[in-house]
Write a structure and sequence with these properties.
This protein has about 325 residues and is α/β, with parallel strands linked by helices. About 35% of the residues lie in helices and about 15% in strands. The chain binds manganese (II) ion. It is an enzyme of class 3 (hydrolase).
């Protein structure tokens, strides 16, 4: 292990409920506590640790899917990589290299990898791993408040504000969801390239956007990147660049369930948690979200036998149903 990529022990995801088995577990959680280019609130290098700590408080039983997902699937937590905590220094290039190597190694072992950031620039390294190991095309589906389509920001092309531009340059199709903060150059790019975007304001209008989003994905296979600022800051205030008007919890899980069932999700990441002092709302919501990703993959892959249909659990959430009923 190289000196700048220090392996720090981390608590196992859901370690309060399950005993990991590196050999047989189907899911691998990969903590990447890397932070170098964040521009507003700092602290996302502490995101993975906070999510893992919060996961100790999760119920193993998923009431929507009616199964003890973690016990059935097995969840292995890898050691932290590209760790910049305690002022450790890791260059962007080294972070990308070790991220790609580690994700590719886990994916080649047949693991479903969920990477935890850390800043969103890490995603370029994660996606590169699937590019190298995947023979079939895939789309990058991004949940985010921001376009992240700048060519460069504050002198770096690997800044967290540029990560989707790097993905576009890889030649991968994208679908962006929850977007509500972009610069003019990004707006021009989206228009000129006819990029697929589901805007935050569309999501606020009702649940029709889910079908539209799924229909706009051009490939069966999908890599999913979640910048937690895509979700409403009322349930995840602990992000570096909060934006009002994000996805509600039920918007989010209704979409994710549909995405996992309709497409084939080959890997995912959950990025940019920057914990807030004296509040655990953000990290607990993020931990529950990670467990939902595991559950929906278990459902899609048939690792769990069956589950009640989404409609039986009130998904997708018809958010304006009550208001509509009140209409004359
Ligand atoms: Mn963002």
């Amino acid at each position: 292990m190289q000196s700048t990529i220090t392996a720090k022990s981390v608590v196992d995801f859901l370690g309060s409920e399950i005993v990991p088995n590196q050999k047989t577990d189907k899911v691998a959680i990969l903590p990447i506590p890397f932070e170098a280019t964040t521009t507003y609130r700092k602290g996302c290098e502490n995101g993975p640790g906070a999510i893992l700590e919060a996961s100790q408080q999760l119920e193993c039983y998923d009431d929507e899917l009616e199964a003890e997902i973690g016990l059935i699937v097995g969840i292995y937590t890898h050691e932290a990589i590209a760790d910049t905590r305690e002022s450790q220094s890791v260059s962007l290039e080294e972070m990308l290299r070790v991220t790609t190597e580690t994700v590719k190694s886990l994916a080649d072992q047949g693991k479903f990898v969920i990477a935890l950031g850390g800043e969103h620039g890490i995603t370029a390294g994660v996606v590169e791993a699937y590019r190298q190991s995947s023979t079939e095309p895939f789309t990058v589906v991004q949940i985010d408040a921001h376009g992240d389509l700048r060519h460069e920001y504050e002198g770096s092309i690997y800044n967290h504000a540029c990560v989707m531009r790097r993905v576009v340059e890889m030649g991968l199709p994208t679908v962006q969801i929850g977007i509500r903060s972009i610069c003019k150059a990004e707006a021009d790019l989206i228009r000129d390239q006819e990029m697929k975007v589901i805007w935050g304001r569309e999501i606020a209008r009702g649940s029709d956007w889910i079908q539209k989003a799924i229909a706009s994905i051009p490939t069966k296979r999908v890599f999913l990147t979640i910048d937690l600022d895509g979700i409403d800051p009322s349930i995840i205030p602990g992000v570096g660049t909060p934006e009002p008007g994000g996805l509600s919890w039920y918007d989010l899980i209704a979409f994710l369930r549909q995405l996992f069932i309709s497409q084939e999700v080959i890997g995912c990441d959950v990025m940019e948690l920057a914990p807030v002092v004296d509040s655990v709302v953000s990290e607990f919501t993020a931990a529950k979200l990670v467990y939902k990703l595991v559950g929906y993959q278990a459902l899609a892959k048939g690792w769990i036998q069956s589950a009640p249909p989404a409609e039986a659990r009130g998904l997708p959430a018809p958010r304006f149903q009550v208001a509509d009923q009140l209409k004359p």
